[in-house]
Design brief:
Length: 153
């Protein structure tokens, strides 16, 4: 039997909490500090991460309490994912919301939780914690790579 995976048969709003959470590939790109140009609203990414991000695992260090600790942490949902233009194009939630499939390196596709790191998608080895960067120095840390995707295999 050729059974299709749930992310190909269900809409984001039809997924269970466990299915929704499993879509996170663990790249950590959404935890990068972003800056918005006050004149034109353009959003740029920095190589600076939220202080809760574990830079090795690329996962939140206190996921259950993140909103209490970091009030402006955005909680993704099927209702808001289409409006969050700062999410990287590689993000599974964004990809599915845009009608694309998961990338070859996504752990649900590859079966390997390290594939996101091996493909160079994650922030591992490329970031610094916000606890080490002064707010006035954030502009010195703007990077383009969070808006890039690898070539689909």
């Amino acid at each position: 039997m050729n059974r299709r995976p749930y992310w190909q048969t269900k809409s984001l709003s039809e997924m269970t909490s466990a299915e929704w959470e499993a879509l996170c590939d663990g790249c950590g790109r959404c935890c990068l500090i972003k800056l918005e140009d006050p004149d034109d609203g353009e959003i740029v990414h920095t190589e600076v991460t939220c202080h809760l991000l574990n830079e090795q695992s690329c996962r939140c260090g206190d996921y259950a309490n993140r909103k209490a600790i970091v009030p402006d942490c955005v909680q993704l949902s099927p209702q808001n994912i289409g409006e969050l233009n700062f999410m990287p194009p590689s993000c599974a939630y964004r990809r599915l919301a845009e009608g694309r499939d998961l990338a070859w390196w996504h752990p649900l596709v590859s079966g390997d939780p390290n594939s996101v790191h091996e493909a160079g998608i994650s922030v591992r080895g490329r970031v610094v914690s916000e606890s080490q960067v002064a707010d006035e120095d954030l502009e010195d840390h703007i990077v383009d790579w969070p808006n890039q995707e690898t070539t689909e295999a």
